[in-house]
Amino acid sequence: MSEPCAMEGAEPSYYPSPHSRMNQVLRFLWRLVWLVAYRPSPKAFHGWRRFLLRLFGAKISRRAYPYPSVKVWVPWNLEMGDMSCLGPDVNCYCVDKVVLCAGATVSQYSFLCTASHDYQLPNRPMTTAPITIRQRAWVAADAFIGPGVRIGEGAIVGARASVFRDVDPWTVVGGNPARVIRTYQPEPGE
Fold first, then answer.
1. Domain of 92: which CATH number?
2. pTM of the model
3. Which of 9, 58, 112, 173 is deepest in the core (most CB within 10 A)?
């Protein structure tokens, strides 16, 4: 599970096309599971969510916290480390890999988007790139994280920010497009 977090700058391996027959069938099955058992409910608990996501290929630590109302487009492209959290109503559009390392938090209503379109070509084909959120990073409420973005260790993305470029470790960014607000050092002993 810690492999993607440890390999700084590593390119992801080949992923099948999001429109392949296999992906279409798995997405259909995932939608059925969502409608029957995965919908948000007041009595839901994280263990059930982790089980269902793992059933469809997600790599989720036993101590990760995907909230019941999280929308995951294709769970087999999701990886969550220890004590990582996808908050309420997060939209995880993981056409490509989405990796949350240990202690990473994505707050409510945020959108993690790994796909876009190449506007320079007439048929506008889909392009994808993975998102990695490093250890102890925090994506605040209602933020947008674009394709190919790496959020560095301990970085903070402010509420309602739109991030289209990598964020350096121990940096606070905010705005649309996100700009550096300040840098900070972790407390001793963290």
1. 2.160.10.10
2. 0.78
3. 112
